[in-house]
Design a protein that fits this description.
- Belongs to the Fur family.
- By secondary structure, the chain is an alpha+beta fold.
- It has two domains: 3-87, Arc Repressor Mutant, subunit A (Orthogonal Bundle), CATH 1.10.10.10; 94-148, Dna Ligase, domain 1 (2-Layer Sandwich).
- The chain contains six helices and five strands, in the order H-H-H-H-E-E-E-E-H-E-H.
- A hairpin with a 5-residue loop joins strand 3 (94-98) and strand 4 (104-107).
- Bound molecules: zinc ion (2 copies).
Amino acid sequence: MTVSEKRLSKAIDTLKESGVRITPQRHAVLEYLLTTMNHPTADDIYKALEGKFPNMSVATVYNNLRVLREIGLVRELTYGDASSRFDCNTTEHYHMICDSCGKIVDFHYPSLEEVESLAEQVTGFEVSHHRLELYGKCEDCQKVETKKH
Ligand SMILES: [Zn+2]
Ligand SMILES: [Zn+2]
């Protein structure tokens, strides 16, 4: 089994345990998320799967993503507009986002988790989660940039 096949079979188990019906479309959305790992929008997923499911709409994709989010298999990254990205990496991690092409790359920085306990001590809040995003230019876009000059 490849890594993504293992991830998929684990995710299917989670679906079964939550009593969520596994439709062919739901399976395909999950499979796409787990094999690409590239934080797609609902529209990206729709475009990738429309050939396989001609009757599927963007609304169906959203619906499936909502179900997957509710049982904790997918995280939604909202940006204050319609372009939510969906992330099936539900472990603690951060995002590096390319200003030019919009690519999102995961990275880990475990020591940042200390921020939560420090913030709780300072503010008296009970922290539920935190989110960190860094912006810049990915390697591909840097190459394009140097070619231009
Ligand atoms: Zn880029
Ligand atoms: Zn991510």
